[in-house]
Amino acid sequence: MQDQSICRECTPGIRTLHLFMALVAMVASNMTNVAALSAQEQTAEQQAAQARNEKLISRGKSLELPTKYAPPPGDPLEHHASGFAKIMCSAVFITGLDPDFAAENVGYFTGPSEERTKMGKPVIDRAERTVKVVLPNGVIRTAKHLGSQGCVTLPIGQDTVQFTPVKVTSKFPDASTQPWPMGDRLPTTPFPKALDSAKVAEAVNAAFDSASEMTAAFVVTWKGRLIGERYGDGITASTPLESWSMGKSLTATLMGVLIKQGVYSLSQPAPIPEWQAPGDPRARIRIADILHMSSGIRIRAPQDPDYDPSLGYPDHIYLYTGSVNSFKYAATRPQQWAPNTVGRYRNTDPVLINYLIRLGVEKHGEEYLSFPQRALFDKIGIRTMVMETDPFGNFLTQGYEFASGRDWARLGNLYLQDGVWKGERILPQGYAKFVSTLASAWKADNRPIYGGFFWINGEGELPVPREAYYMAGAGGQTTLIIPSHDLVVVRLGHYKGSEVGSSGFNRALTLLMQTVPRSK
Description:
The protein is α+β, with helices and mostly antiparallel strands. It contains 16 helices and 15 strands. It has helices at 12-28, 32-63, 76-95, 99-105, 113-116, 197-206, 246-260, 287-291, 315-321, 326-331, 348-363, 371-380, 405-416, 431-435, 440-444, 503-515, and strands spanning 123-125, 130-134, 140-145, 151-153, 215-222, 225-231, 241-242, 386-387, 401-403, 420-421, 424-425, 455-456, 469-473, 477-482, 487-493. Strand 10 and strand 11 form a beta hairpin. The chain starts with 11 loop residues before the first helix and ends in a 5-residue tail after the last helix.
């Protein structure tokens, strides 16, 4: 059965489907008695989940403010085509996947598989570095690869973006010439005596037990040393892969860099320009509230406990596919709840933090699009990260970013080391504690699972200590930080593989817990 912690971006209906698929698999294996028991457990689990959901909905309604909701403009199928064109563009021009493989297996989040059947086959122009998707009504959605800014879907009828792309390069030499972690050259010293190398290898291989899970990269570090890794067919240690909402944790990190520089503080009201009119209640929203996914901003997201797909295309996805100024869209939504009251997983919050990042960087006269590389990536050896934007040059790192497994491991180790890298403090003291501590609004909802753009293993859904915390993205993308064992574990996979579950990932974690000792 799929671990729901790895399916945070799935709708409740998808999770139910996973339960049903697990039951069918057991029946097919002639495990009649076990299947019957599983069906009973499934019903009990569904009933308990429904009861929790009803409590969430009831509490939310009791605290709701009398503001109106305005749905995103445009045709949903055109938005789906926008997402599909971008997914294909990134898969082909960033990851280097075969187009047919990508169309079948990659990135269902903004281009669902059932919607892809309603569109023409993507037309890939390698010379122009574009992907076009034609709809039955003749509308064409075009995504264009812009180098360092990755792929951007153009507004309908336009053939260019509203910003000047910037070439972003690392200041460091080729990674193969530099030792880990600043480069990719691994140590030649013996494997750590405290660990069983065979057991670690078994754990790494377990992540690939089921080919149908489509694991693409699995990387393990202990005390900062890379102790195990493996890659799927056609994938290398430097291949940038779809990462989805792990980018929210990257967004938190960039905000942490600015807080360390004194540009912002967690407790200050967020200086969003659109909120500064006299009497605007949004002016009370703090930066910490936004990082906690508890700003209270009103949109619709598939993760909402009362989400109804019949009400139209959700803003949560529109912030990827709308081909609009995403910062302005998020900043002009009304409040649904007072800040720090109700926790909801919605893309407005990371988009708003990215808005603040741009405002803070440009206020100091710095170039925005290269800021992550020079202020963060160059400091910890990250070279493969591609952060994509909307047509106005605003980062969409609520989920549009690509990086190798090793680079996500580097970011995870920055947190394992409390924001310090090779003696330099990059994040504020205590920031790792902030992002990994349960947000009060989520605690009030009796959901001990979310901190500051990081998930928390507070319900023990992963077979690791409950204090572990992690970056998570749709399709099973995970960067797990386990401070009690000095471990960082990265799992990246092709999106379609998440449909069959995450048993291999869970088995790999179980084996690691059996062989890696607790920190002294």
